[in-house]
């Protein structure tokens, strides 16, 4: 199915509506289209053509949004890169996606140099240099979208330890936006605050929804509780996306104040929220929509309406209008309250991963998420275990297998096991247990392993503690029992 380019159509329908508010800058949809077209003209002079993969290593700002639309205009595929990753991690993703171009913000110059020191078969250009490129006079632009074409490839860490490139089509993004709108509603006065990273699906989905809905997005470079609250109270923000830790900090900073009546949706992801937090929201009249989603579903696929946020405490809600949900337990459909693997399907669900990996996660149109949960008698979903052993630290998904893979790659480490422990600020943080070669100096090993991991893993993935043990807990099949790892902690250990 073909349809007009989203930004073209929106600029035609409502050219003078505000598309972006960033600092003191306001950009209309007509201006965004004009600027994106000029950027597209400059990108076309690089080694790009329709279907080429263009990586972005950029911060939250208005120019990043221009780049996303510009890449669409030249028929490229957007590959957003997590700016918190190391050169080692980013190099893997660039090679795996076979990116032809990397566009980066100048602040990441040193990181890009580290990437290209071992991988130079990619054209790298800073946003500053790109803006100086002469405009092409005969740029062939894409003005109609084939919805089955790939819009973006976004990497998500997998339980195997290797990140997987999630293929996101135009249709996936379009149907995600429609499903969200049918669930959350839409007002001509809506304004969506973005302080989540644009390289995450939560941020990218807002960029797309802004154009489809015709509403402004207010961009913050990073999350700051005072600035976020000010945007809601003084700038007319009506919707924002949060995780429990950010919401808690916002409420603390808010103090005795309350949000204005125009604020209608606090979209809360990243796992179930504590009862105390929800009770504070109720007391302050904050409408919380708890939600469950992932990169593979182009953001939310299950959402709890605020009227149920206390009566269905811990639930992520019900599937969005176009989506379906099921629970599979040992090969059969689970009964109400019976735990099993969460499977989902719908037009917002990816058709698969890049390079054919993870094919066993898909069957008969269903995505087998690897998450464990159940539905109650009324069809409300409860997530028991996020992607088996995954945990959330400060809003970031962390997979123990990825950290274990980094540790085991060190020459002194025989085995490694990673789990999480509670942390006052981040919610959960990783803690590692390693078995070393017999002749290793244990006094030196911990510091050396911390440095080794720091060169290979993003800061938020680094183990808060590394404990040297003689053996790891395993079952009869020699499978690591991560749930038993904390029993190896020294007695009376605290954070």
Describe the structure.
With 495 residues, this protein is α/β, with parallel strands linked by helices. It is 28% helix and 28% strand. A hairpin with a 7-residue loop joins strand 9 and strand 10. Helix 1 runs antiparallel to helix 2 and helix 7 (170-184) crosses helix 8 (201-213). The longest helix has 15 residues, at 29-43. 45% of the residues are buried. The mean pLDDT is 92.
Describe the structure concisely.
By secondary structure, this protein is α/β, with parallel strands linked by helices. It contains 13 helices and 28 strands.
What key attributes describe this structure?
495 residues, alpha/beta, 28% helix, 28% strand, globular
- Our measurement of the CA-to-CA distance between the termini, rounded to an integer number of angstroms, reads 55 Å
Share of helical residues: 25-40%
Dominant shape: globular
In terms of per-residue confidence, which ranges show pLDDT below 50 for 5 or more consecutive residues? none
Structural class: alpha/beta
Global Rg:
23 Å
Q: Mean pLDDT, as a whole number?
A: 92
Count of helical regions? 13
How much of the residues is beta strand, in percent?
Answer: 25-35%
Overall number of strands: 28
Largest sheet: 15 strands, mixed
Which helices and strands appear, and what pairs or packs with what?
Layout: E1 2-4, H1 6-13, E2 18-22, E3 25-28, H2 29-43, E4 53-57, H3 62-73, E5 77-80, H4 87-97, E6 101-104, H5 109-116, E7 123-126, H6 127-130, E8 144-146, E9 150-156, E10 164-169, H7 170-184, E11 192-194, H8 201-213, E12 217-219, H9 225-234, E13 239-243, H10 244-254, E14 265-269, H11 275-283, E15 288-294, E16 299-303, E17 315-319, E18 324-329, E19 332-333, E20 340-345, E21 362-363, E22 366-375, E23 381-385, E24 391-393, E25 396-398, H12 400-408, E26 413-423, E27 427-436, H13 442-454, E28 465-468
Helix pairs in contact: 1-2, 2-3, 4-5, 7-8, 9-10
